[in-house]
Design brief:
Blueprint lengths: L1 H24 L22 E2 L5 E16 L9 E17 L2 E16 L22 E13 L2 E5 L24 E10 L2 E9 L16 E6 L5 E10 L2 E18 L12 E14 L8 E10 L10 E2 L7 E2 L3 E4 L4 E4 L1 E14 L2 E13 L6 H4 L11 E11 L5 E21 L5 E21 L1
Antiparallel strand pairs: 1-2, 2-3, 2-22, 3-4, 4-5, 5-6, 6-7, 7-8, 8-10, 9-11, 10-11, 11-12, 12-13, 13-18, 14-15, 16-17, 18-19, 19-20, 20-21, 21-22
């Protein structure tokens, strides 16, 4: 019995030795190392390292649903409008020996209908000769697209002239808020102080259409520029808030072409130097509530309406759509006059609770546009009149943030425009008939649901 037991144990040991030797001869297969996505904390929350690189990426965006309601001034108008906007942000940053290399892209895709098609600050505006708001249309816009390498910024970015830039509220006030193509250099001096020089292509608000040109047998056109606008800004940002002083200088040129003459070369016009200056203050108010802030801003411009927040057109209700030209030319003598104007802006944000806030904001602006006749308004051949609009806008909202990144809010906006002289009112069909008026106003309500991520 002992002999049998010894043979069995010996056989088992022999088999184990042979199997171990054979296993040692087999090729070894090791699992490939797994590279996990790492969080990048150098540039704030939401960034992560792109696997295999030293670059940090953040992908974010926004979805906004918006509904506006307001007075309509004619049977051809819609009294409401709807809007949906999707936004995608891509932010890529890499640390280099020369400073941070940043590439930022922001795309907006917007579909709007109804009152949003009137092209002004509220649903009481007349657009396209009083017609109803355009059918729903989709607009794709590269809102931002720039490269920053150390002190250099190149591409489409927020103008360095801008300060408040409609930071509060659902609607635009009269203040510069544009994203032109630019090339800028920013020097930093420590303690929050910086200075910037920027070459900017301000394509907004350079319409030199003259209101009475055809009535006098000529047409005024805007000639090309010889150089982009030069913008400079001094900024300080510290714990108490921030302050900025900015200025801009540029060129606008006009020429006259006799009406009805084919192939006639434009007469030499004037080359005008235009400019604007702006000062702004932002105060953090933690003594009231965490996150509270007060904005104050004032700007003055000559021949550069876009730095006041004006495009090529303005108007409300029965005033219809009017032209806000940078330059007004008298076709009888070819002399041009720069439009002068100023605007002030104020805004306050207050948190009632950590999830409920209110904002109150407003602007007041005036334009001195010189003598300019509008044949469609007063009839061809009449003497020139000064319109010189004065505009007042005020709004407030109440916003609830039930969870981080989600805003549900309502807004009420009141605006009024007053002209220096009376013009014919726009009727229900967009025609200038009936009585003379010099002012009109509008009241608008708005609901917004917005998710940022």
């Amino acid at each position: 019995m002992k002999l049998v037991k010894s043979l069995l144990l010996g056989s088992a040991a022999g088999f184990a030795a042979v199997a171990g030797a054979q296993a040692a001869d087999l090729p070894s297969r090791k699992a490939a190392p797994v590279e996990y996505v790492r969080v990048c904390t150098a540039y704030g929350s939401g960034f992560f390292y792109i696997p295999g690189t030293d670059s940090c990426l953040r992908i974010g965006g926004r979805l906004r649903a918006e509904y506006t309601f307001g007075e309509r001034w004619g049977d051809l108008q819609d009294s409401y409008g709807t809007r949906a906007r999707g936004r995608l942000n891509v932010d890529l940053r890499t640390a280099t020996a020369y400073g941070t290399l940043r590439t930022f892209i922001r795309y907006d895709v917007t579909i709007s209908s109804g009152a949003y098609g009137y092209g002004a600050l509220n649903s009481g505006a007349i657009f396209a000769n009083g017609a109803r708001g355009a059918a729903a249309s989709t607009v794709i816009n590269l809102d931002k697209g720039f490269i920053q390498f150390g002190p250099i910024t190149a591409g489409r970015a927020q103008s360095f002239f801008d300060f408040y830039a409609n930071d509060l509220g659902f609607s635009s006030l009269r203040g510069s808020d544009t994203s032109p193509n630019l090339l800028a250099y920013t020097a930093t001096f420590g303690s929050g102080f910086s200075a910037t020089i920027s070459l900017e292509d301000r394509a907004v608000g350079r319409d030199a259409t003259v209101r009475n040109a055809l009535a006098f047998g000529s047409n005024i056109v805007l000639e090309g520029q010889q150089y982009p606008d030069l913008v400079g800004a001094l900024n300080v940002t510290q714990g108490w808030g921030s302050a900025q002083l900015s200025g801009a200088i540029g060129q606008r040129s006009t020429a006259s072409i006799p009406a009805g003459v084919v192939g006639f070369a434009p007469q030499v016009g004037d080359d005008e130097v235009v400019w604007a200056i702006q000062g702004g203050l932002k105060f953090n108010l933690p003594m009231l509530a965490a996150g509270d802030v007060l904005w104050l801003q004032a700007a003055y411009a000559e021949g550069a309406n876009s730095y006041l927040g004006y495009g090529s057109a303005f108007g409300y209700g029965r005033l219809g759509s009017l032209t806000a030209a940078d330059i007004v030319v008298d076709p009888t003598n070819g002399r041009s006059k720069l439009t002068k104007g100023w605007a002030i802006v104020a805004g306050l944000k207050h948190y009632w609770t950590p999830t409920i806030r209110s904002e109150v904001y407003g602007s007041y602006s005036e334009l001195d546009m010189g003598a300019a006749v509008q044949p469609a308004v007063l009839g061809a051949g009449v003497n020139a009149v000064k319109l010189d609009p004065k505009e007042f806008i005020i709004g407030t909202n109440l916003v609830w943030t039930p969870v981080s990144g989600l805003d549900i809010g309502v807004e009420v906006l009141y605006s009024k425009v007053e002209l220096k002289n009376r013009i014919l009112a726009v009727d229900n069909f967009g025609n200038r008939t009936g009585f003379l008026i010099k002012s009109d106003d509008a009241l608008t309500g708005r609901l917004r649901i917005q998710r940022d991520f």
